[in-house]
From TrEMBL:
Residues 21-238 form the MacB-like periplasmic core domain. It is found in: Cell membrane. This is ABC3 transporter permease protein domain-containing protein. Residues 270-407 form the ABC3 transporter permease C-terminal domain.
Amino acid sequence: MVSRSTLRIAWRNLGRNRKRTILALSAIAVGQLAFLSVAALMRGFGEQYLDSITGPMVGHIQIHAPRWRDDRSIDVTLRHVSATIAEVLQDPDVERASPRIYAPALAALEVEGFMSVVVGIDPAAESHPRGLVPGEHLSGQLGEHRVLVGAALAQKQTIEPGMEIAIVGQDVDGSIANDLFTVSGVIPSAIDIVHSQGIVMSLEDAQELFLMPDQAHEIVIHLSNPDRIGDVVARLSSLPLLRDAEVLPWQEILPQFVSILKLMEGYIFVVLFIVFLAAAAGIANTMLMSTFERTHEFGMLLSLGCGPGRLSRIIATEALLLGLAGVSIGTALGVGLVALTSGSGIDYAALGGSASSYEAAFAGITMSSHTFPKTYVSDVAVGVIAVLLTSLLSVTWPVLHIVRLEPMEAMRS
């Protein structure tokens, strides 16, 4: 326990050379400000990234028939989909369960055909902000042989609402599947398979077209609490209807994106290491200079009976006060800066000189140049603890110098 007199002496000593103390405080504060700013940007980007990964295309959990992911063969299906969905939705952590059918097909408006992918969905399950197709495009536009066409595909093939389109493919028995459908709308989508190739129809129409009664290729599940993915996977895997199915969390479906998230975490710690260096350089320089300048004073104190332990505590307390003051200023500035920008966000495109923000889509994942920084209490705590530990480490040399001092020799210096 540090006594009040030690705190008072240490605080006064920091004021002896105010310029040096201010420089050290500035180095620490700027380091903490930089760490919290970068960490907030990375946290905001990471949350946006994770939200996009677990968004419309992938979800938090996916259910497939075994081997379907290997070659996505149309005849490898989940059966008893209606009963399965009903059981899955009984889980308290499951928010939505969306059955889907994916089937390559040849489509034609007149004579010449073009390749497309039929996407069969349940409009009721997909009519939410994170559904595969935006909710406003689903109202009354699917079912009864009506389909929606991806915007890029429609533009390329000059498809407009009201046109009749023929779809030819292969059903689960290997026979020819074909029928006529009416285009009820053209939809833009961040999901590439929908935007550039997709012909979206109701699940019932797709099941009828490809002879898949009460079947689907995939069930995409969204949870109310993503932190409980492991528990939900375990519970769903034990359901009788799913014992022979693959029940996979998104981390196993897209392991490459898990690595990217880990890389983001690693980058935050690189910035934290820079904070360590800034704090160590500022505090060590201040304490070393202060110690060597006061060698004569320390010699007098030692000769008067003040022990090396007391002097060491004073030096360590000075370092801690310097670190605490600097990191407090940096934390206040960092949290304030994030608070100012968290509402409006930061647009990387605008910082780069672009007139507008942009979105990029890959493998069903959409990323925007507009990021909303977010401060984590854990990041603030880590920064503070890092600086305080650095403060203690930085006084090792000054303390060793004091311990080795001989009073008479020190008084002569």
